[in-house]
Design brief:
The complex is a heterodimer. By secondary structure, chain A is of the alpha/beta class. Helix content of chain A is 38%, strand content 29%. Chain A is built from eleven helices and 14 strands. In chain A, strand 12 and strand 13 form a beta hairpin. In chain A, helix 4 packs antiparallel against helix 5. By secondary structure, chain B is mostly helical. Chain B folds into two domains: 235 residues, no CATH class; 119 residues, 3-Layer(aba) Sandwich (abc type-2 transporter like fold). In chain B, 67% of the residues lie in helices and 6% in strands. The two termini of chain B are 25 Å apart. Classes of the chains: A alpha/beta, B mainly alpha. At the A-B interface, helix 2 and helix 3 of A face helix 1 and helix 10 of B.
Chain lengths: 313, 381
């Protein structure tokens, strides 16, 4: 099994703040690796180190077999990077942007023009190629940025929130392109805030305060969630939530429409106990049943767990 | 490497051409500035300094003095005042710069062989006018003294031509080789050309990298394998092209309206301008690489341009600067440029006389460019 990205104890400090704290990451060649976690968890900092834009404070990282410290420029040749903020030239057309970046990646003459127009067509911007980039809509800008990251056929793609703020069809469009790139054997490391996007990844790493607090395939993550889960259908739902939160053994409660999701260390006795207490408080309970966690449940559980650890330790 | 430099240059050119308003400013500003600076300095020679006469004596001899003053262009007599107080008030109000006072008893003292005085009341605020009025007064009195002495000798039987030679045995004969009109404008035009070129090039170049940083495009660019040299040279080239256009228009203005002999010395002047413009662009690039924002870049550029203006001998001779400050002056390319262009346009110097300045300017270009490349960081340490 060959690794496209491999880090050991990767650390980055900014003054007193540790943005990335001893990260150990392995991404297999050709897989789509999802990077999750709240804002400020260290996702962007990690990507910037892996792209050779930022020197690590400690630890090592190998990207495409190259050391990001020693061979940053060689790393840049074989990776494509799409920053979180739109970073192409607004006063150039789509085609000119692509042509420029193809040139900077040292594609020459014929090859450059061919790759630029191919990539534009691939992301569906062929008929908009003469428009100034600043006049394109958000979704189109994201596709153009992806095209720029792809134009030199990199073996690894780093995408920092490629679908942020995009509507569902645009997001679907981008993910189709990511699958296509992965099918060509490219490794993709993508950060996202959307759970349904995380479900699309082969492996997800959940970052919190500069380290992984959860790592594995979506199925693994769900199976390994350290808590049990009850779905409660009750009325009024707000009152039911308040009651559930006060109960011993309950670690968290989330409200979804008219149902509650109640997290607990174990649910063996809790189910009956909860039913009794709810009824005693005048809540109409329709059903209480143990359910399998969704990825979103896993994230809620992991985040809460990490915060508790930080709070006590 | 050259291919990538070309891609960067083409991209920059597209961006420059697309920003029509800035482009217009870039092309028109140097013409306007050269014209305004030149016109402002053209009338820099002081004439018609407002003055009044206080003729307390009112004698035939004092009237001769008053008439003599009125023949000089430098002094503009606004009329006579009656009292010293009146003259002082006008001086205090800034309405006149000088009062010429002929005291009571002026003629009587002369006739009696006593020392007579012409008094000047001068406003020293403007350190240029005071010495000019004083010079005029000295010439008036010297002529008056000479004429009186000749008359006195003639009364004793010495013929006027012989008498004049007795009184003034030596004359000064002068021959001005360069800039025969002694015009300040001719002296200062090379400095004006240099200042205008420098202002534009440094400012334009200084904001280019911070602008990419602010727009976020630098992030994308730094993630590519572009080298620092490719980026710096690619940014330099299009601005060098624009600057050469500016050189052409500025030299045209200087030749057409300010009597700078451009056409006669074109190749040498172009070479000097090209090297100077390159050194200024490189200075701008250096500022660009160390600035975090466009605002900061402009600040640094202003802090560079102002001292250069004062210290480079662009508008006053470098010899007027104290010895211990002059080493600082030698750090500015503008000093060598002004010096060389002055030599070429005023003294008709050829390559054999200015090659050193050309070499020095070339040295500046190489050092500043290399420095700019080194100080550009492709990643955060």
């Amino acid at each position: 099994m060959s690794l496209a990205i491999e880090t050991a104890n990767l650390t980055r400090r900014f003054g007193a703040v540790t943005a990335v704290a001893g990260l150990n990451l392995s991404v297999r060649t050709g897989e789509i690796f999802g990077f999750l976690g709240p804002n400020g968890a260290g996702k962007t900092t990690t990507i910037r180190m892996l792209c050779g834009l930022l020197l690590p404070s400690e630890g090592t990282a190998r990207v495409a077999g190259l050391d990001v410290r020693r061979d940053a420029e060689a790393v840049k040749r074989c990776v494509g990077y799409m920053p979180q903020r739109f970073s192409l030239y607004g006063d150039l057309t789509a085609e000119e942007n692509l042509d420029f970046f193809a040139g900077v990646y040292r594609l020459s003459g014929q090859e450059r023009r061919r790759r630029a127009s191919e990539t534009l067509a691939r992301v569906g911007l062929a008929d908009r190629r003469r428009e100034l980039t600043e006049h394109l809509s958000g979704g189109l800008k994201q596709r153009l940025a992806l095209a720029c990251a792809l134009v030199h056929s990199p073996s690894i793609l780093f995408l920092d929130e490629p679908t942020a703020g995009a509507d569902p069809p645009s997001r679907q469009r981008i993910w189709d392109l990511l699958y296509e790139a992965a099918a060509e054997g490219r490794t993709i490391l993508v950060t996202t805030h959307y759970v349904e996007e995380a479900e699309r990844c082969q492996t997800i790493g959940f970052m919190h305060r500069g380290r992984f607090i959860g790592l594995g395939s979506p199925e693994q993550c769900k199976a390994e969630m350290g808590e049990a889960l009850l779905e409660v259908d009750a009325l009024p739902v707000m009152q039911a939530a308040a009651v559930a939160r006060r109960l011993d053994g309950v670690t968290g409660v989330s409200i979804y429409g008219h149902t509650l999701r109640v997290f607990a260390k174990t649910t063996t006795h809790l189910r009956h106990h909860l039913q009794e207490v709810l009824v005693a408080q005048g809540v109409a309970v329709k059903s209480i049943r143990a359910v399998a966690p969704t990825l979103e449940d896993v994230f809620m559980s992991l985040t809460r767990g990490a915060q508790d650890t930080n709070g006590t330790g | 490497m050259l291919a990538v430099v070309g891609h960067v240059a083409r991209k920059e050119t597209r961006q420059i051409l697309r920003d029509r308003r800035s482009l217009l400013l870039i092309l028109v500003m140097p013409i306007v500035l050269t014209f305004l600076f030149g016109k402002a300095l053209e009338t820099g020679e002081l004439r018609q300094i407002p003055s009044v006469i206080l003729n307390q004596d009112g004698s035939p001899e004092s009237n001769v003095i008053v008439t003599a003053f009125s023949t000089y262009d430098e002094v503009q007599l606004q009329g006579e005042v009656a009292t010293l107080q009146e003259a002082q008030d006008l001086l205090a109000q800034g309405k006149i710069k000088a009062a010429i006072v002929i005291p009571r008893g002026f003629m009587r003292q002369i006739e009696a062989g006593e020392e007579a005085q012409l008094q000047l009341l001068l406003d020293g605020t403007d350190n240029n006018s005071a010495p000019i009025v004083e010079g005029v007064a000295r010439r008036v009195i010297q002529r008056y003294n000479t004429e009186r002495a000749i008359k006195g000798l003639w009364a004793r039987g010495v013929r006027p031509d012989r008498g004049r030679r007795l009184i003034q045995p030596v004359f000064v004969h002068r021959e001005i080789r360069y800039n025969p009109g002694l015009q300040y404008l001719s002296y200062v035009m090379p400095g004006v050309i240099g200042l205008t070129l420098q202002l534009l090039t440094v400012m334009l170049m200084a904001v280019t990298i911070p602008r990419e940083r602010e727009r976020g495009t630098l992030d994308q660019l730094m993630a590519t394998p572009i080298t620092r040299t490719e980026l710096i040279l690619g940014k330099l080239l299009p601005y060098f092209g624009i600057s050469l256009l500016n050189v052409a228009t500025i030299l045209f203005v200087a030749d057409r309206w300010f009597n700078v002999p451009v056409v006669e010395r074109l190749p040498l002047l172009l070479a000097l301008c090209a090297l100077f413009v390159l050194s200024s662009l490189a200075t701008g690039l250096l500022i660009s690489t160390v600035s975090r924002s466009q605002f900061q870049a402009v600040q640094i550029a202003v802090f560079y341009i102002l001292p250069v203006f004062m210290l480079s001998g662009a508008y006053a001779p470098i010899e007027a600067i104290p010895d211990y400050i002059r080493p600082i002056s030698s750090l500015f390319p503008l000093m060598y440029f002004s010096r060389a262009v002055r030599a070429v346009t005023l003294r008709g110097a050829g390559l054999s006389l200015v090659w050193k300045d050309l070499v020095i300017l070339g040295g500046f270009v190489l050092i500043l460019l290399y420095w700019a490349v080194l100080s550009f960081r492709k990643r955060v340490a």
